[in-house]
């Protein structure tokens, strides 16, 4: 329900309206070739967890502590950003760092899942890559682009 409310407030359209709208290609001038990179879920989960751990290692807790010290309204977008509420709870003493990191990682994975679901259902791609979009996928990309160019 919270996500549905956020979408309605943020866009003026309900989730049902978004879902009912047909998938469309972006309005780009000229010809375009769209590639949807849709890696396996386990790879996405691992990447999300590693990215958040790296952010914590690079000082994310101190950054969130600076936000908390400013006593900002919790409804502000910066205070609702993925992971901020969890790290803020740690800064305030409500969660241990491992608990906060685990919750922030879960929130990050949920956000990534929403993005992937949206992309799969709303993007009209010329090529869908189920890999990571790296050099291993060139075997699929090069022939598809060659066909597009000709």
TrEMBL record:
This is tRNA Delta(2)-isopentenylpyrophosphate transferase. Gene3D superfamilies: P-loop containing nucleotide triphosphate hydrolases. Its EC number is 2.5.1.75. It comes from Pararhodospirillum photometricum DSM 122. Keywords: Transferase. The gene is miaA. InterPro entries: P-loop_NTPase (IPR027417). It is an enzyme of class 2 (transferase). GO terms for molecular function: tRNA dimethylallyltransferase activity.
């Amino acid at each position: 329900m919270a996500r549905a409310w956020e979408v309605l407030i943020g866009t003026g359209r309900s989730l049902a309206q978004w879902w009912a709208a047909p998938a469309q290609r972006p309005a780009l001038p000229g010809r375009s070739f769209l590639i949807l990179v849709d890696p396996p879920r386990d790879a996405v989960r691992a990447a999300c967890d590693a990215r958040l751990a790296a952010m914590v290692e690079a000082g994310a807790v101190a950054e969130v502590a600076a936000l908390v010290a400013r006593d900002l309204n919790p409804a502000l977008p910066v205070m609702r950003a993925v992971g901020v509420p969890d790290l803020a709870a740690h800064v305030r003493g409500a969660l241990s760092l491992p608990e906060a990191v685990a919750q922030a990682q879960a929130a990050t994975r949920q956000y990534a899942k929403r993005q992937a679901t949206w992309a799969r259902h709303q993007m009209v791609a010329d090529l869908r890559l189920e890999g990571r979009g790296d050099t291993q996928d060139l075997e699929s990309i090069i022939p598809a682009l060659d066909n597009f160019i000709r």
